[in-house]
Design a protein that fits this description.
about 350 residues, alpha+beta, Beta Polymerase, domain 2, six-stranded mixed β-sheet, about 50% helix, globular, disordered N terminus, Nucleotidyltransferase-like domain-containing protein
Amino acid sequence: MALVINDILGESRDYYRTVKRESAGRLLINPRGSLYQKEEGGSSFLYLRRLENGKKRHIYIGKVDDAHAFRVKEGLTSRAKGVLSLRAAKAAMKELGMSSLEIKNEDFFPLLRELFQVMADAGLWDEGLSLVGSWCFKVYQNFCGVEYFPDRTLDVDFAIRLPYRGEKVNVGNMLKGLGLEEVINHADGTVFYRSGELSVEFLKDRMGDGLERNSPYEPDIGIAPVAVPYMRILLSNPMEIKARDIGRVVVPSMAAFFLHKLLVASQRRKEGKRAKDYRQVEAVAKAILAQPAMLDDVKRIAGGLHKKWLTKLTASAATGGADLDAANAVLRRAEVIAVGR
């Protein structure tokens, strides 16, 4: 009988772990805040209201009957369900006698906050480290007014500017101290870190032909980053964000992200990843159009790019057609298309 009870308790713990993880994921991929409507010229328009740094922020969503407005409504509903489900799962886990540490560590935001704090404590944000990839885009969505759409990812990508000139640290050991497992890619010697479904990888700018003639391990920082083309665009244009949810984090400017994504999207072999890149490009482009200063930033960054890169990114934007209307508008207004030609 005792074995049967233990089996049931074990299954219950696994069940609520899964519920909690899925609920936490739902909170990560859906917008926060509340919706309200404004009537103007006989039409109804939808806005998202939320608190940022102690101040109310109002974000225009679109007409109430737009497809995008419908997706935002769905996202908010999903988030509300996620909050309730997460609370219920935590309560059940507590009733089952699971430790508070285990309950906390299965949330993804707390782990991300710990990751960001580790980077801050080591001074890495000030020495050329940036959060890139899908989590960078999530930061834009949550704190920079970029439109929402679901994009569940548990891969955290950091880019590092090399050569590293800060104080010697061992980031790999710090991550292992957080409970992440070191995973070595024996094909090229690069290393990433994993904790359950969450993985952390480091990237660097690829120079020349991209062939590694020496070990990728960087002893002064204790990581072995993957060489990725065009990464210098992101690393040369950092932007710092401070927020209660995530602490301090450095990401590329949205102008740099926009140009970089246009470059890499057309070179994707998998259609799904290419479509995801273009969707992010268009979402960021809409935010850039709303802020003229960002158009100046696009023009400045594009002006420093190699002519071949400009040709590639303008061709990439052209292939998107109507799906990249905002992206092409950004390139025209920033006079990048003329520069590329």
